[in-house]
Design a protein that fits this description.
Helix content: 55-70%
Shape: elongated
Distance between the termini: 128 Å
Length: 598
């Protein structure tokens, strides 16, 4: 037999697990030709199988010297990758692709290696090329879907998982990952169906139960979410991520003692977990424990989900422990527009300590907050002013040691809008014959708690029967609300003229009352001391506390709380009765005024 035929037999033995016979074939082939490349390659493969990677590299490298075949380069790259020599492996995979550019397997291997090296976009292109060459390549379809999911390219990832599903409908992991993508694309019903398929194939995966629980939570099905998290914990009791999710559900159900116990258990498992510490801070603030809550709330900086950016300033962070006289301090917005308005009340207090205050906020509120007492300069994030210290606006309560009984209740700390703008809005609204009431029924649809704090416009329909002039303050009306708005022209909508918060403040200054869900509008109204009725969800944001209808943050605010989860109807009914009472009182005053002698 020729050396080639002997090597062919040796590879057959190796693939069948007959290692001794394969080694014998190598010896026979090398006896006939000591430089035969197939024999050298096979010997390297056998060394790799025998956990002798250095010897494997040596034998396969000798084979490549004799004949640089793609299959030899692939074997060498595999050994180098196993040794952790990833850049060397990358070079060998690339050489193999040069020889066999139509080999889908090589594209897949190199794509996976590039993924390990952190070159994710390049890796995705390689995996997509593997699929282009071989649409029946399940591993490439699955891997490409996983990588695109990691890159946040969810629609493309779903396409890859769809292809993988056609090739194999028995992968629980595939359905789980596609469910994650579908959930991110807000295709919640499809996502739930995939999670159910995954659980049917393998009910032992705690991640799937957890993901299904998160989906139920986002959709407001808290009892189902709670059950899913319990099933996940039965499989993995020490999962601090699932414990945190369960705590959130308990918070939404207002089972606060149980939520605290669950978070403490999570912190026992992972003492430095910022998510658990942040949730615990939220509970502490919600219940008025500001002393512990402000400090624990600093965990928000370690949460990727919070979307906060550590600015990396070289200047020190001010936490109230350094003198400010003669210093310039940058106070910068770190959360939403409403948060910035709420915490801007601390600016005059910082200035009173002798500091020159530079206030950095988002463009829509820059002009509005630039006029606050003590602001020397109001800038956007793109500017680069010189300063000595800095402090995020959301950290100022911690810096001042704010307690429930020491909240700075600055009266109208945001300056009134220019008279000319107020006059322009008064003219747009026409002659005042009734109470003017502004309405906001929805917040940012991308907010993670939007499904709890927003309502459809039709839920406010009972207010249309009140003898008042209703004025929309709602920016970004959703599609489902457009038709209702068009059918009720008596609800005045001039929001096209609301180009920034100064314009919103000017319009609000023409109103007798603002009624709104929990959005930045209520903070603006409160900061201007305009009467505002805030509609609060059953599980409120921490700043609205519990069991009270006033707010220690705003003197002009009244809170209307859901008596049970999702019950906006009761809230609107309470507001309608109160509004009718205010209308009656206004009429009485008007009637008395007309009876007075001229």
């Amino acid at each position: 037999m020729t050396p080639a035929a002997i090597c062919q037999a040796g590879f057959a033995h190796f693939q069948s697990g007959r290692i001794a016979e394969a080694e014998l074939c190598c010896q026979q082939a090398l006896t006939l030709d000591e430089q035969h490349p197939d024999a050298l390659h096979l010997l390297g493969v056998l060394c790799f199988h025998a956990q002798q990677p250095d010897a494997a590299v040596e034998w396969i490298a000798r084979a490549i010297q004799k004949a640089p075949k793609a299959e030899y380069l692939l074997s060498l790259a595999t050994v180098l990758e196993r040794q952790g020599r990833l850049e060397d492996a990358r070079q060998r995979y690339s050489q193999a692709l040069t020889l066999k550019p139509d080999d889908a397997g090589l594209w897949n291997h190199l794509g996976n290696l590039l993924w390990q090296l952190g070159h994710r976009d390049e890796a995705a292109r390689h995996l997509q090329q593997a699929l282009k060459l071989n649409p029946q390549y399940w591993e490439a379809a699955h891997n490409c879907g996983m990588l695109l999911l990691e890159l946040g390219r969810h629609a493309e990832a779903v396409e890859c998982f769809d292809l993988a599903e056609k090739l194999n409908r028995n992968s629980a992991a595939l359905y789980q990952m596609r469910g994650v993508c579908l959930s991110e694309l807000k295709r919640f019903e499809d996502a739930a169906a995939d999670y159910e398929k995954s659980i049917a194939l393998d009910p032992r995966l705690p991640e799937t139960h957890n993901n299904l629980g998160l989906l139920h939570w986002r959709s407001g099905r808290l009892e189902q979410a709670f059950a899913c998290f319990d099933r996940a914990l039965a499989l993995r009791p020490d999962s601090h991520a699932v414990l945190n999710n369960k705590a959130v559900v308990l918070m939404h159900l207002q089972l606060l003692d149980e939520a605290v116990a669950t978070l403490q258990k999570s912190l026992t498992v992972a003492p430095n977990d910022p998510q658990a510490r942040f949730y615990l801070a939220t509970l502490q603030l919600l219940t008025g424990d500001f002393e512990r809550g402000w400090l624990a709330r600093e965990a928000r900086w370690q949460l990727p989900s919070a979307g906060l950016v550590d600015r990396g300033f070289a200047q020190p962070l001010w936490l109230g422990d350094q003198p400010l006289a003669g210093k310039t301090i940058l106070l910068h917005s770190d959360e939403g527009l409403g948060d910035a308005i709420q915490f801007a009340r601390y600016v005059p207090m910082v200035a009173a300590l002798g500091a020159r205050v530079i206030l950095e906020v988002e463009p829509p509120i820059q002009q509005l907050l630039g006029g606050i007492t003590g602001v020397a300069e109001c800038v956007g994030r793109s500017s680069s002013p010189a300063f000595d210290l800095h402090c995020p606006l959301g950290t100022l309560p911690l810096a001042f040691g704010t307690r429930l009984d020491t909240i700075p209740l600055a009266e109208g700390y945001v300056p009134a809008p220019p008279t000319a703008r107020v006059t322009a809005w008064d003219n747009r609204l026409g002659r005042r014959t009734r109470l003017r009431v502004g309405l906001v029924w929805a917040g940012n649809p991308d907010h993670k708690n939007d499904h709890n704090r927003s309502m459809p416009l039709c839920a406010l329909a009972p207010l249309l029967d009140c003898d008042v002039q209703l004025v929309s303050l709602q920016k970004g009306v959703r599609d489902q609300d457009q038709a209702f708005l068009a059918e009720h022209p008596d609800l005045v909508d001039l929001t096209a003229h609301l180009t920034d918060f100064i314009e919103t403040a000017a319009l609000m200054s023409c109103l007798d009352l603002v009624i709104s869900v929990d959005t930045s509008v209520v903070h603006l109204a409160g900061a201007l001391r305009i009467p505002v009725w805030t509609m609060v969800a059953f599980n409120p944001d921490w700043r609205w506390l519990l069991n009270r209808n006033d707010s220690p943050w705003y003197q002009s605010m009244r809170l209307f709380r859901q008596p049970k989860r999702g019950d906006w109807a009761s809230v609107v009914d309470d507001i309608r009765r109160e509004l009718e009472g205010r209308v009656a009182a206004s009429r009485s005053r008007h009637d008395q005024a007309t009876l007075l002698p001229a």
